[in-house]
Structure to design on (102 residues):
């Protein structure tokens, strides 16, 4: 608990939390900071080049980074609660699914 801001999320942390959330989305290459093309429209890249085990390891790495940043957010802002890790992970997945692709 030495690296936490406080034990409760207060409104002054919102000023830090929102830019941090956008930084996490950009670092993870999640929507809206990902490619403009749809994954199904690409005929080159890792969707075509890798198969089976390498493809699974690639996606495990992406979701591992998602879990890492969810845990980091929980440690910095919510004094490490497993519920906060789960909610942050769910928020990041929900932003990806709710953001429309044009």
């Amino acid at each position: 608990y030495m690296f936490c801001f406080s034990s409760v999320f207060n409104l002054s942390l919102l000023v830090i939390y929102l830019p941090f959330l956008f930084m996490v989305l950009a670092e993870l290459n999640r929507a809206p900071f990902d490619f403009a093309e749809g994954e199904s429209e690409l005929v080159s890249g890792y969707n075509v080049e890798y198969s089976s085990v390498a493809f699974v390891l690639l996606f495990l790495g992406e979701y591992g980074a998602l879990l890492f940043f969810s845990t980091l957010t929980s440690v910095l802002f919510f004094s490490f609660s497993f519920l906060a890790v789960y909610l942050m992970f769910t928020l990041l997945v929900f932003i990806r699914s709710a953001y429309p692709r044009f």
In short: The chain has a mean pLDDT of 82.
